[in-house]
Amino acid sequence: MWTNEYKAPWHIEMDDFYQNDKKTKVDYLHSVGAKYDFKNDLVLEAAFGQAQGYIDQYFAKASYKFDVAGAPLSTSYQFYGTRDKVSNGGVNDIYDGTAWLQALTFGYKVADVLDLRLEGTWVKADGQQGYFLQRMTPTYASSNGRLDIWWDNRSDFNANGEKAVFFGAMYDMKNWDMPGWAFGASYVYAWDAKPGRMSSPDAYYDPDYRLKESGL
User: Fold this and answer.
1) pLDDT tens digits for 135-185?
2) CA of 74: how far to CAs of 18, 26, 104, 112, in Å?
3) Could you list the residue range(s) of the whole structural domain that residue 32 is in?
């Protein structure tokens, strides 16, 4: 894949890509990926992407499925990595070193109607931004990176240092004459989240929000 501009669904014209400061232009994005199915329920995937002069991204995934008590158990290990090319401590220097998100997933199907999921993630994202982002450009809808971990409120669990465990269950109502309907619930527990590092002590200071002095 290669591209030098994008169009968000709510825009009518094409837009350029920019770094985090919304001023420094990114001339192009490109990526390459591969997937190999061993035809024995083992699948390997890998990919690499770049935002010119700004971000490198990496992806690897191994998936394996086998039967437990006559029902399929799907498992995977996933790695998502990203590294910025800016090292001046400015607003575009979003990570200190390589940031990553790793995940282990387990999915079990019972009686063809009940799906159970147990998943865990671990994030490292030292630096100013303070969280892992799978996109190669920061503006929402400007680009989109792959992330197979999908929970409700997923973006709440990508902070630096954060570990999270997810459990979910979904029941298919097809045996109750309600094809296409399913009901479920999920729970997430997370810990060890850390804040980002400010580029300067006054990074979040805005004089427009300062209380004005008055003689009264």
Assistant:
1) 999 988 898 889 999 877 665 799 999 999 999 999 999 999 999 999 999
2) 39, 39, 11, 14
3) 2-7+14-197
Greatest CA separation for the chain: 80
Is 178 exposed, middle or buried, given 0-12, 13-18 or 19+ CB atoms closer than 10 A? exposed
Q: Is 128 left (phi over 0), alpha (psi -120 to 50) or beta?
A: alpha
Q: Could you tell me the CATH number of the domain that includes residue 37?
A: 2.40.160.10
Domain assignment present for residue 212? The answer is no
Q: Is 190 inside any structural domain?
A: yes
What is the per-residue DSSP string for 121-174? EEEE--SSS-B----SSSSTTT---------TTGGGG-BBT-EEEEEEEEEEGG
| 48, 58 Cβ separation under 8 angstroms | yes
Q: What's the pTM?
A: 0.87
Contacts of 42 (CB under 8 A, 6+ apart): 62, 63, 64
Q: Tens of pLDDT along 131-146?
A: 999 999 998 889 888 9
Identity of residue 55: I
- CA–CA–CA angle 201, 160, 77 (5° rounding): 160
Task: Find where tokens 């329920």 sit.
Answer: 41
Number of domains in the chain: 1
